[in-house]
Design goal:
By secondary structure, the protein is an alpha+beta fold. Helix content is 32%, strand content 24%. The chain has one domain. It has a five-stranded mixed beta sheet, covered by helices on one side. Strands 2-3 form a two-stranded antiparallel ribbon.
């Protein structure tokens, strides 16, 4: 089954957030929004900057949840983390894009920078996640990812 990119983007929003995709301007959403609305605004604004090699890598990304190790049991959806990183690292002249590929049983997330003239840097491995729930960060501190559970990228976590 092939999912075209427009349908995939809509499913990405709906699966992560259960909300419709909204406006299409590249302006970061207000961090004062409730979690689901903030995450929906990220999808609407930056969703086209997270790319998937195939349908299976997309499905595994939206299903993968990072345990925040919080008493309230909150989790951090991997797809929302990727969107928040893209939003945080975007400027007019250069912006971050992520590419997700499935290698065997592991999801691999590669980041690269794109310049306004269309040129791009070489992709760099940033995250790996496997079917057993193990999550590894490369070039990013795990603490930075876990801080995302508490607001460093805005309200992007979810209750279990």
């Amino acid at each position: 089954m092939r999912i075209n990119s427009a349908v995939r983007l809509a499913l990405f929003a709906a699966t992560l957030l259960a909300l419709p995709v909204g406006a299409n301007e590249l302006k970061p959403p207000s961090r004062a929004l409730p979690n689901a609305e903030y995450a929906a605004a990220l999808v609407a604004t930056y969703g086209k900057r997270v790319h998937f090699a195939d349908d299976e890598s997309y499905l595994r990304t939206v299903a993968f949840k990072i345990d925040c190790r919080a008493q309230d049991g909150r989790v951090l959806p991997l797809g929302t983390l990727l969107l928040a990183r893209v939003a945080d690292s975007s400027q007019d002249a250069v912006w971050l894009e992520s590419y997700v590929v499935l290698r065997g049983d592991e999801l691999r997330v590669y980041d690269y920078l794109v310049r306004k003239d269309g040129s791009a840097t070489q992709p760099t491995l940033r995250f790996e996640a496997n079917r057993w729930g193990e999550f590894r960060a490369h070039g990013v501190r795990v603490e930075a990812v876990l801080n995302s559970c508490f607001g460093s990228y805005g309200p992007i976590w979810r209750a279990r």
